[in-house]
Write a structure and sequence with these properties.
The protein is an alpha/beta fold. 34% of the residues lie in helices and 23% in strands. It has two domains: 61 residues, no CATH class; 194 residues, Vaccinia Virus protein VP39 (Rossmann fold, 3-Layer(aba) Sandwich), CATH 3.40.50.150. Strands 7-6-5-8-9-11-10 form a seven-stranded mixed sheet, sandwiched between helices. A four-stranded mixed sheet has the order 1-2-3-4, with helices on both faces. The structure holds S-adenosylmethionine. S-adenosylmethionine binds next to helix 5 and strand 6.
């Protein structure tokens, strides 16, 4: 991998230990910071990305910016749900407390956090992310992020319940038993307007840019008890390519959700 791990300047022993553990987990070198700048470390080790450990967790310095875990739009979307407002993803998935969701494209984990909030303690959300640096940021953030929230809005429990798997989703799906999740979700990079968001800019170069394979959709239909949902740009031809005809979303929204009804499909023997 084109990356190394270091620490902030003057790290505590715990932060140095954390950095060394990230290096082992990612199978990349650890370098002492020794008062060097991010730019000079990148130059010295000839790498594009630097993972910097601090007391707040890891930050990845890429060619396009700095990336660390944050709630992004998840907080606003959860507040809107609490206030009875509509969320197109939640509606497309038909989410309710107690359901299970496999998010095949975890990324910043924003959608997974919203799903985890809705399915609650009795539900289950697993997020699959193929890129090790992105998976590390999501996993560390979901397990350690703290927030002084109101008790009725238990964001910490919502985050902690999400399980992160650093894997390629097609391979991961083939290992799962049939009907093992209620909903399987895809939000691929290709043409997705989320690319343009400043939140995603620093990790754009790190993200897996592959299109969703038709075989991944077939596996997802096998794994999903209720629905496979694909998020795409409103004008995307991906729905057509993947054979998805039931497309929902806001009338003026730039994002749409393609839905495969697995109950109907399996009853029809397909
Ligand atoms: C558009 S982002 C997803 C954003 C996410 N829904 C959110 O709310 O933050 C797509 C993510 O899926 C990952 N990805 C793309 N193809 C993948 C694959 N085949 N297996 C696992 N992860 C994949 C990318 O690396 C990227 O992080």
């Amino acid at each position: 991998m084109d990356s190394i791990v270091t620490t902030v300047q003057h790290p505590s022993p715990d932060v140095t230990q954390m950095a060394k553990e990230f290096a082992i987990k990612l199978s990349i070198p650890f370098a002492e910071r020794n008062r060097q700048s991010v730019a000079s470390l990148k130059e010295k080790y000839k790498v594009s990305n630097l993972v910097v450990a601090s007391a707040a967790g890891p930050t990845v310095h890429t060619a396009t910016g700095e990336y660390f875990f944050h709630l992004s739009m998840a907080e606003l979307r959860i507040k809107n749900l609490i206030n009875g407002k509509h969320d197109h993803m939640v509606a497309a998935m038909g989410l309710a407390p107690g359901m299970s969701v496999l998010d095949c494209t975890l990324g910043l984990a924003t959608d997974a956090i919203v799903a985890s909030f809705v399915v609650g303690e009795a539900g289950r959300v697993v997020g699959v992310e193929s890129q090790p640096l992105i998976a590390l940021i999501a996993e560390y953030g979901l397990q350690h992020f703290s927030h002084d929230s109101h008790p009725e809005y238990n964001i910490i429990g919502t985050l902690r319940r999400i399980k992160v798997e650093n894997a390629e989703h097609s391979e991961y799906l083939t290992m799962l038993p049939a009907d093992s999740f209620d909903v399987v979700f895809f939000d691929p990079m290709f043409r997705n307007p989320i690319h343009k968001s400043s939140n995603f800019k620093p990790i754009r170069g790190l993200a897996d840019q592959r299109l969703v394979a038709p075989e991944a959709i077939r596996q997802a239909v096998r794994v999903a008890k209720q629905k496979v949902v694909v998020k795409e740009a409103a004008n995307s031809e991906e729905f057509l390519r993947l054979g998805i005809t039931n497309i929902v979303g806001g009338k003026y929204s730039s994002v749409k959700y393609g839905i495969i009804d697995c109950v109907k499909m399996k009853a029809g023997g397909r």
